[in-house]
Design a protein that fits this description.
20 strands, alpha/beta, 498 residues, Protein-Tyrosine Phosphatase, Chain A, UDP-N-acetylmuramoyl-L-alanine:D-glutamate ligase, Rossmann fold
């Protein structure tokens, strides 16, 4: 059996290593492609895959096993006798193939550990050193924060790229021949679950942040404690700055409990007045009291709330993301003017509190990315009177507390999704006075036109119709982006007819 602890460089001897890759999505294909390039013998195991990726496997020199029996281990996998298994993020820890790997004492890595071990393939431009890693996680806001941090770095002339859960595999970035100075790595709780906190595969990021923590993916992790424990791994071995949310004490406790490098600082962010080693707000001004020498007696201005509003970042949750991103890039060494200039040119992605239309006194907002209660709460909290389009796959979470805490601002609810009954029952328990309407169509093409029609029938001047489902999308849509696009199309069709 190969000594895997020695495989900590692109230039180590990976030749002939027998590897099984679970999954053939974007992550799985990147892992297979990388390992074949290294000379490993790679078998991909996938129950379903994109036809183009399947065809490409043969081109790159890997093979595919497609399990025919849901309860059995494929014969091809047994025959391959893997020394290492790379698991794609979606595979639950109790998956039968991971159970088989444990029985056989087969080492299991995630794609992020593999990328970290191989990070020295292409050095940062103008250096002989690999890229610095900045790590971002949290129940909500991680994609926007990763994009913000990357944008700020790029606008300041730093070769940076956002990778990981954001859609670009880290393995693709570390193999890019141009090289990067910084990888901003967005990690889901699934990816963090597979990361070791010590040993040769453990990450040692320059800076890290857990933006917030709320119940999510409990069906995957098995408990809220396991979910929080996975998120806390983001801080392990951080070298310069652990960024935490002052409004979410759980993130502070994660930092306090983390094993970090000597000299690493804890940096808080929040929407209140900052203390030394914090970022926050003083009136309308976003200030930094962390990354300056005289932080006990002074602060440096980064931008103003008015400037953030002009950039579409004025909502409270967006300001929090800005503060977190600013802390990350200030830890890297960006100047306050770099942050200000970069924020002025940043624009949010689609499906994140995106205003679709302002018609007849009613605003229509797409926040399809709000796939859990915490994200939906941020969307609802930005408005005074909301017609809320809600529902989908609830992933084992209870939506009741979200309804109860926002009942005064909910003018009506339009319920979509396969778990409609659970949502309707939650409204009956926690907000019986709120009018609730169900979208009964199960055809994907009809869901959003019906939701928009119902919302338009109850919305009044001054209301904001918000798609913030607090649920996953895969029951009726391809993904949250598909759900958002269909909502936007239905809204535009409706408003053009007014």
């Amino acid at each position: 059996m190969r000594e895997l602890d020695e495989l900590t460089s692109w230039y180590a001897d990976w030749r002939g290593l027998r590897v099984a890759v679970l999954g053939l999505g974007v992550t799985g294909f990147a892992a297979a492609d990388t390992l074949v390039e290294l000379g490993a013998s790679v078998l991909v195991v996938s129950e379903g895959a994109d036809h183009e990726r399947v065809d490409l496997l043969g081109v790159i020199g890997s093979t595919l096993a497609t399990p025919r029996d849901a309860g059995a281990v494929p014969d091809e996998l047994i025959a391959h006798d893997p020394e290492l298994m790379i698991v794609s993020p979606g595979y639950r820890p109790d998956h039968r193939l991971l159970g088989w790997a444990a029985e056989k004492a087969i080492t299991v890595w995630g794609d992020i550990e593999l990328a970290w071990r191989l990070r020295d393939k292409t050095p940062a431009p103008g250096t002989f050193e690999p890229a610095e890693w900045i790590i971002v996680t949290g129940t909500n806001g991680k994609t926007t924060t990763a994009q913000l941090a990357t944008h700020l770095l790029v606008q300041a002339g730093i070769a940076a790229i956002a990778v990981g859960n954001i859609g670009v595999p880290a393995l693709d970035a570390i193999r890019d021949p141009t090289g990067f100075a910084v990888l901003v790595v967005e990690l889901s709780s699934f990816q963090l679950h597979w990361l070791p906190t010590n040993g040769p595969g453990a990450l040692h990021p320059l800076a890290s942040v857990c933006l917030n923590i709320a119940d999510d993916h409990l069906d995957w992790h098995g408990s809220r404690e396991a979910y929080a424990s996975a998120k806390a791994r983001v801080y392990s071995n951080t070298r310069i700055a652990c960024i935490y949310n002052r409004a979410d004490l759980a993130t502070q406790r994660m930092v306090e409990d983390a094993e970090v490098q000597d000299g690493c600082r804890a940096i808080g962010f929040g929407l209140d007045s900052p203390g030394p080693s914090d970022l926050g707000l003083v009136g309308d001004i976003i200030v930094d009291r962390a990354f300056l020498e005289d932080r006990h007696r002074s602060a440096v201005e980064l931008t103003t709330h008015g400037e953030l509003e002009e950039a579409g970042l004025g909502a409270p949750h967006s300001v929090a993301n800005v503060l977190a991103a600013a802390a990350l890039v200030r830890a890297y060494g960006l100047e306050p003017d770099d942050v200000r200039r970069g924020l002025a040119s940043f624009r949010l992605d689609h499906h994140r509190t995106e205003v679709i239309a302002d018609s007849a006194g009613i605003i229509w907002v797409d926040d399809s990315k709000a796939t859990n209660s915490h994200a939906a709460a941020a969307a609802l909290g930005a408005y005074d009177s909301v017609v809320w389009v809600v529902g989908g796959l609830l992933k084992g979470t209870d939506i009741g507390s979200l309804i109860e805490s926002n009942v005064r601002r909910i003018a009506a609810a339009i319920v979509i999704g396969s778990n409609r009954q659970l949502v309707v029952e939650a409204f009956a328990r926690h907000a019986p006075s709120v009018p609730v309407f169900e979208v009964t169509s199960i055809e994907t093409d009809h869901v959003m036109p019906e939701a928009v029609r119902l919302a338009a029938s109850v919305a009044r001047v001054g209301d904001v119709v918000v798609l913030a489902p607090a649920a996953a999308s895969m029951d009726q849509f391809a993904d949250y982006a598909d759900r958002g696009r269909r909502f936007a199309e239905a809204v535009r069709h409706h408003t053009s007819a007014i």
